[in-house]
């Protein structure tokens, strides 16, 4: 039971009406005559008005309009004998119900005619038309036109219109917005006894926008509104139940009134008010109150079955997600279809996400496109629906991209003010330049989007000015656009600036502030980076809870989630900020790929094709790469070009054909590789020309292009590209891998290089920066004399560094040096011993072999075999094969053909091709095992396959 009204100014309403500015005394007196009870604090209501009462005994059912025709098909050529029936039909079509689907287009058509027609209810028609023009479901919201119709209705003394027009003024939605006018309109409605006007005036007073108004006066307004509604309730008008509950649930009007409000919502729901059921469900879903899932679903179901369109959509979403209800995809689809049929475009959008596979079901892109197409036909569809259709067509609904259709939908979205669509169009035209009407169109679109503050466009402009075939390289422009993009909250630009290693705390704070703004706008990638910033304390105080909260927000279902999943997966794969975790990364990529994200499918495909020993996984990787490649992605094409012919059979193309396709699609590396690999000079020249026409952006590509020219006697161009690579390294981050490549090609004389010392200096820089490959190259080069004079001591130094850095291959190099008599051999053996004692399997193997064979020390077969056994037990296949040979000859161990073959089998099972061949031979001859021709043949086939890989 409602035990208290709002605390008043202490005036007993039985005796004196309080002064309430703008509310006429007659209206107040009327309300007070109906309720001669004091309203100051702690005043109980009569039992008949308690929310627990049985209102079915006093409620008068609202008269149901009787339609004698189907007004949804009416047009101006048909007569209108009864404007009131036409008006009732318009109201039904605008709101929907259990027996009539919502049809805002029909409602608008009827109301526009009624607003122009001379009849007694013309003011109501203007009000309803103005209200409809403010509802997104009825089409693009038009506040100015709505204000015109509402003002016309106000002139006809329609107080509901007065309240709604006041709201437009209060919220600044129209050009003539004026808070004073909002106050005047609300006072007029209040004076006429309009409850919404009374409560609207109370809200305006509480906002503080019309000066200081005593709290008690505002509380009295709220009490007056409630008492007016109680009066209506006493007259059997049970719609007042919902309105009472709505006032009490507003904490700004009735602090702490939610508990009491819910009792009134329950009372309204018992009388069959679907809006009350929906309100209760949303209170529970928002976490403002707690209830069991079946209670929530019960409210939603009753509201949906009563024809409440929003309830249909919310119920469908809950059933689709399995949130607060058992997951039931079939029922979810039914309710979402019904919501869509009631002109809810967001329901169709949710259906499209379901058909795209975002909620775990199999993809059906045709149905996804159909759902979005139906949504786009509704008057209230948003630009995101057009963008969704564009992306579906761009990726290919039936496996074949439709660039023309995609551009059409992007243009429609852009024409309606969606700035991101300009950027998406530019991206599509950059990938498919043949679709552009003019070559400069992508840059024009990007600059327009950037000028309208689109961070993605700014970031892309930075990329293009850094290196592209679209515009000449301009480092100043690239830097300016990168910084603008970062300041605008572009996640990848912020990441790029952070990777440049700046230690400026002020810059870090600015970047984090930009990330926060972007995250609050809903950018999922920014949420991930913001989470990292909170975790690391980069530009903000360390806050683990905030870090977890932002990461959870980034991964919540919804638009943009797949981009967050891909970014997080890449971080896990690259060990950025945390340990490398391929399993967790794959799980994230699987989720994003299920949502039809091309970037996720590409990353997942590359990950899976690397699983050589798992044919099913590798085959799925090929499928994913093929799907992305057929949409025009040159990176996916190049990834396919690196696979074996057998794996590529399902794609219908050879590796060479995929590489050529990648080059034709604009992949620079593919063109360079083709130029390097062909033996035909004319073919090489063609691919070199293609590479020169494409953006050669990385020092690595410049080096490879230099080598390609060197092979075709193009010394001058080879030298030019090598110098560009050197300049790139000097001006940017000194990547150890690139430093090594430059040094190596210089040693080989590429571009007519004559200074071997300069080449060695590059390799040493790489080695000193931790590049193991460079350490190994120097060690072997000093042994062979390739990098200068033969220098065993220097070789041992570099090889030992490589070994200590985990390079397994150099253990054999040190073993060979150990075989040379003298101090240097002893030094090499000592290094191997140290490595063996540290438990490094290759070190144990080579130290064991050295002891077996007497390298640097007298031969110790037993001790050597013991070290080999340790290495083999640690999984070293080379040691397993050495042990197999030892048992076959009885050297340092007992003579045992069986033990020899067992170790051979372990090496074969570990994937060693040589061991597979030898095991096949042993099974054929019956050496250490029974003769088994079929098993021998299987091992032979496996060996051949392993050798090919």
Automatic annotation (TrEMBL):
Top-level division of the source organism's lineage: Bacteria
Classification via Gene3D superfamilies: Tetratricopeptide repeat domain
SMART domains: SEL1
Keywords per UniProt: Signal
Secretion signal, residue range per the UniProt entry: 1-41
InterPro entries xrefs: Sel1-like (IPR006597), Sel1_AlgK (IPR050767), TPR-like_helical_dom_sf (IPR011990)
PANTHER family documented for this protein: ERAD-ASSOCIATED E3 UBIQUITIN-PROTEIN LIGASE COMPONENT HRD3, SEL-1-LIKE PROTEIN
Protein name: Sel1 repeat family protein
Organism: Microvirga aerilata
